[in-house]
Amino acid sequence: MENEMNTTLIPEVTAEERCELPITGMTCSACASRIERVLNRQPGISSASVNYATGRATVAFDPEQMDVNRIAETVENAGYGVVLPKLTEEVSSSTAESDVEDEVEKAHVAEYRDVLRRFLVAAVLSVPVLVLAMSHGRIDFPGMNAVQLLLTAPVVLYSGASFYKSAWAAFRHRAADMNTLIAIGTGAAFTYSTVATLFPFLFTVPSVHHAMPTPVYFEAAGVIIALVLLGRLLEARAKGKTSDAIRRLMGLQAKTARVVRGGQELDIPVAEVMTGDVVIVRPGEKIPVDGIVLQGASAVDESMLTGESLPVEKTAGNEVFGATLNKTGSFQLRATKVGKDSALAQIVRMVQEAQGHKAPIARLADVVSGIFTPVVLAIAVVTFVAWYILGPAETRFTMAL
Fold first, then answer.
1. What is the pTM of this model?
2. 209 CB-contact burial (10 Å; exposed 0-12 / middle 13-18 / buried 19+)
3. Is the pLDDT of residue 160 over 80?
4. Could you give the number of structural domains in the chain?
5. I want to staple 183 with a disulfide (CB 3.0 to 4.6 A). Which of 37, 71, 146, 167 is the partner?
6. What are the pLDDT digits (tens) for 98-128?
């Protein structure tokens, strides 16, 4: 009876699970910090770390309280996207992981092309606006402000649209980031300049001889958007290279395997090989899965695994590893480790974990990003109020902006 009571009182310990999810839509370290805070507040999640450089979130969770789909839903509710593996009965976990990497690569390419288009529009249209604004009267003609408005409008409304969308998403979640600063700065400059162009009498400053022209700041909005997009373009290109190592490792895996089933040799996708299958490997072929040699002998190039340039002799009873290259003879092996349990899959997992680990400087950047935006906004508000109160009555609003 006492043993039964003890058994009842001892809580069952649930094994913790970990998952790594590619995140899309992050634009700065503050985004990664915000996702971390949102995830760490969820019941069932013991720890969450988001690496902005690699665009991945590593989450440890209790499977009884949380699952991957709910984690993804939490991230999406915060205003970001998640690339999830599409697991079905016909698709193994290793194939799904490869599909995720393909989807991430497609997302990187699409992001790069989108930023490139926006940057080209911003650069082409902002240059003439900058020339007009910096001419300081050397270039002057009726309707010059209207021309600047027409040139800057596509830059703000098209090239800068992502900044305003991200800033609004952050605002809805009671947060602020780099997009908030860009949206407020360029939005204020463009809005004021547009009103000053369409209704100049609202801001015209009278002088002794004639009314001074109303200053406009279209070039500030256009150039800021163009320069930030240039930075994002370079960043998107660099991000695409961070997953090259993983893609190259996955590319080493054989695509098909020749197995013996029902007395017949069948060529099947390597993802369909099961533990215990007998696999035939011929000269010049990549070994599809980890296993033990049943019969035959050969020399196997294991340089991708061990770095050893000389082939290693393999006979019955020896262990062989997937993605290594069979050189000379033919042999049969019995599959012992397939999919995520293979040596190659473990190497890929270690590379992913190494990339997902945050360096101390990255953690410092997360801390700084959390206070940088509020501090800048506070300074901007104080500056506006000070100029509006202490500035000349005729120009105080313009100078405050």
1. 0.72
2. exposed
3. yes
4. 4
5. 167
6. 566 667 777 788 888 999 999 999 999 999 9
Q: Does one domain contain both 106 and 61?
A: no
Greatest mean pLDDT among 32-41, 51-60, 241-250 lies in 32-41
Q: What is the DSSP string of 292-309?
A: EEEEE-EEEE-HHHH---
Are the C-beta atoms of 94 and 257 separated by less than 8 Å? no
Residue 285 is part of a domain; what is its CATH number? 2.70.150.10
250 with 322: CB under 8 angstroms? no
Sign of the four-CA dihedral 15, 16, 20, 25: positive
Do 234 and 144 belong to one domain? yes
- Of 1, 56, 62, 77, residue with least CA distance to 349: 56
CB atoms under 10 Å from CB of 234, counted, come to 12
Question: DSSP for 350-382?
Answer: HHHHHHHSPPHHHHHHHHHHHHHHHHHHHHHHH
Q: Tokens in use for 384?
A: 């506006």
105 with 228, same domain: the answer is yes
